[in-house]
Predict the 3D structure of the following.
Amino acid sequence: MKNRVLHKAETRGYADHGWLKSYHTFSFANYYNPDRVHFGALRVLNDDSVEAGMGFGTHPHDNMEIVSIPLEGDLEHKDSMGNVSVIKHGDVQVMSAGSGITHSEYNRNKDKLTKFLQIWVFPNKKDVTPRYDQLTLNVEDRHNKLQQILSPNADDEGVWIHQNAWFHLGNFDKGVSAEYTIKAKTNGVYVFVFKGDVTIDNQQLNTRDGFGVWDTDKIQIQADSDSEFLLMEIPMAM
């Protein structure tokens, strides 16, 4: 029997730091909800808006797979491995923190917000050598179909992480439907809607809602309006 969990947009944690406004689907920093600590190996799903010229100063991470997906604007990344890069809408960035890394992220635009999703996934290997990668995607490849942007395999489509996980983006016109078959039977799927209205397995979702399903082998997706969403297949056991 399928299990499911619904996280409506307005139930998320929220932090307003002035320069940063962040919605937390799962417990993070000063937001703690014992019922919303993680979804399987998915630990953090933050919906961040960074003011012009502002950002996150240098800070450390370890033993976490960190994925950033820009939704609007640009984000400049610098890290202790010597990487300096800018990610923008259409890109996906991944960082395996492994044995330890420091990095900073800034909105270098002087006149507009940067909005991005920050996602943390527990790795399946501890203390790996830290690594960084980013990829510019063809956004047309998600129009009315699911575009794979992340997998466990370095030679597969998208970026890769140290976890048995697959991420897909969809940009569906109203009325378009799709079926997603789960690749590993012990995995679940968590869907986050960027904008629009989507029905997943008879559950109606709206902008910024999240919905998790597990103990199933496939899910049905129906766009009730023009919509954009992220589908994350994640191990449920760690």
